[in-house]
Amino acid sequence: MTKRSLPLSRVYRLLEPGPVVLLTTAQDGRANVMTMSWHTMMEFEPPLVGCVVSGRDFSFAALVATRECVLNIPTVDLARQVVACGNRSGRDVDKFAASGLTPLPAATVGAPLIGECYASLECRVADTRLVDTYNFFVLEVVKAWIDPAVAAPRTLHHRGRGAFMVAGETIRLRSKMK
Asked: Which domains does the chain have, with CATH numbers?
């Protein structure tokens, strides 16, 4: 196999962990939703998720001020709303109204769940030591919700420049340990 050089600006397309999530925040009675794909699991119990939220994003200030959010996981049937939420700023528009997404009250945080998403993770900021340098937040999932009717979710995974892959096929591989 012959390999060719890849521009460093495209490396993220190879490592995007997916799935794309819709991060919701609420501050001063105003809810917002943003599309995010730069996140990673950091610990199993308690569940910790690391994520990058740009300081330029409208959600950044709310996340810093309230120290809570919800990570909502959409399926492929919400692809158009996911892209719309990623291409607009909450400074200029109510993205819930514009995209037709339904905000629902969370149990433990002020940010809303998104009714159309198959899973929602209520989170509190657990660590901000890397925010000033990298805009990297460590979130602790404090409550998780899932739609039991969605047995095999077809999630979106960002490939860059408006391209997505769709996951959904499950394969099971087990090896016997000797």
From this structure: 19-166 (2.30.110.10)
